[in-house]
Amino acid sequence: MSQTLNIRRAAGALGAELSGVDLSRTLPDATVAAIRQALVEHQVIFFRDQTLTPAQQVAFGARFGPLNIHPYVAGMAGQPEVMEIIKEPADRINFGGGWHSDMSFLETPAIGSILYALEIPEFGGDTLFASQAAAYDALSDGLKATLETLSAVHSASKEYSSTGASAKKRTSMSVAEADGYVGEYVHPMVLVHPETGRKALYVNPAFTLRIDGWKPRESKALLDYLFEHCRHEGFTCRFAWARGSVAFWDNRSVWHFALNDYAGHRRHMRRVTVDPWPHAVRAEVAA
Ligand code: SIN
């Protein structure tokens, strides 16, 4: 029997808080389907007052797809799918402190990320989310039509190379440097969501290098415009964490930004990241 989910929208563009479910339990298929439906509809969903061991977080995440093992950020010993996202009181920079979606630097980007809060600073440390479906909707028909013909090149090099944003700056997490060739992957600039059919912009300030086939200056001008447009406050919602909160976002249509406004305090989260089902499994589910 499925548990009764209550859904309360958090903002106009995206976000909803779900209650009435204990994520540490083995959930009935119908409840998992209702959570997935809420995720694709609201783009980011939130849960409160959960208690999850790493194994329970893995078990919950695995109901939505295979779990990703991050190529650069070390996972927990014995539980490599779980990334510990920690900022110690003495750290200056935080993980995820800029607008991005997760893992677009891979050939097959992650579809979702599930973040669980273990320790929250006394103040600050909220996460912002921005709907890239709303950002797409707000464009003119002319620019929409142009973007639908374009693809962009994504790579880990911008963030994880020895000169990238993460290099040697973080002490509380083990982040490897992506030295040498890390690969460049081309993704459409407008994604059609495979579950809802809704279109969303798919460019990423952290990982998009350039528009495929364009000169760097041409590419920079349009990407800069889109990066600015995509974070307009009307497309956003803001989540204030408490211990035991969980956020589950859809990387196909959402950017997020971890605010770094709690100097001198500790913040400790755990994330699992959901990959798409392989084609064969998708076909079986659809049949
Ligand atoms: C992330 O970018 O996955 C981290 C988000 C957060 O810590 O709020």
Short précis:
The protein is α+β, with helices and mostly antiparallel strands and 287 residues long.
Keywords:
7 helices; three-stranded antiparallel beta sheet; Double-stranded beta-helix; alpha+beta; 287 residues; eight-stranded mixed beta sheet; globular; binds succinic acid; 22% helix
Describe this structure in words.
By secondary structure, the protein is an alpha+beta fold. It has one domain: Double-stranded beta-helix, CATH 3.60.130.10. The chain has 7 helices and 16 strands. It has helices at residues 29-42, 54-62, 132-137, 141-147, 157-160, 216-230, 279-286; strands spanning 6-9, 16-19, 44-47, 75-76, 79-87, 112-119, 127-131, 151-155, 184-188, 190-192, 199-201, 208-211, 236-239, 246-250, 254-258, 267-274. Helix 1 (29-42) links the parallel strand 2 and strand 3. The longest helix has 15 residues, at 216-230. The radius of gyration is 18 Å and the shape is globular. The mean pLDDT is 92. Residues 85, 95-96, 102, 113, 115, 127, 256, 258, 269, 271 line the site of succinic acid (SIN). Succinic acid (SIN) binds at residues 85, 95-96, 102, 113, 115, 127, 256, 258, 269, 271.
